[in-house]
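Sample intake — Epoxyqueuosine reductase
Collected from: Flectobacillus roseus
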Amino acid sequence: MNQLRQHHTQLIKEQAKLLGFDFCGVSKATFLEEEAPRLEKWLNNNYHGAMTYMENHFDKRLDPRLLVDDAKSVVSLLYNYYPEEKLSENEEDYKISKYAYGMDYHFVIKDKLKQLLDFIQENIGEVGGRAFVDSAPVMDKAWAKKSGLGWVGKNANLINKGHGSFFFIAELIIDLELEPDGPVKDFCGTCKRCVEACPTEAIVEPYVVNGSKCISYFTIELKDAIPIEMKGKFDNWMFGCDVCQDVCPWNRFSKPHKEPLFNLHPDLKDFTNKDWEEITTEVFNQVFKKSPVKRTKLEGLKRNIDFIGWNDKK
């Protein structure tokens, strides 16, 4: 039985690599005991702000067996999105988070997960399961950590010792027993660069992020007006923010991804601040047709640009 488990685990990991995933790890589908009090405290502190969906399905977030009947294993996967080409190296230019340079990762990774699940069913047998890409109450970083793909750093991102943190995390929760991997050590040490660099002081203490103070929250999640006290603190980020990852020493090991669909949209390469300020509905729909930026809609993007107040700086 043990050998069969190992064989199945190896088979899945090899196929994951063929599909373009950089890392694949396995953990036993059990209740996340360590995470339960942390999540409860985080919600009680209202660190989720207007993201009220975070309050839903508390039990499901902590127990994958409530998401998939008779779940036995959580297969965690990492997919690199670190770009070879940056949007701009000029500090005065408007910025969008690197994960939003190309096509929406939900489309790209969901398709690969479906292929992986199909492969498991074709090569191992009748296996039930579900694929998750940041689209259901699954604590992806906790599972990736449990399966040894990295540790959760002081900026609350998953960090891989050899490759940094610019990864999308995905899961397959399946009713097949596999050989679990163990967690790895936390290598943050005494470093506090992310804590000190956060423009809005959203990292309230090491390993705890007040989501409702994060630039990504203000520019993507928040639909109301951005609080005036945040004026001048956005460092020209108009969609998302990469500051806590950019300053992380482990990201000196980040390597450019090999996924053409995540490449910087060609139309964005020559965008000036003036182009951003004058962006039309037609251009927005054309450039961001299948991009994560579509989430904020044109009105949201314009609100963010107005808030950054480039014109005030001239």
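Post-analysis note: The radius of gyration is 20 Å.
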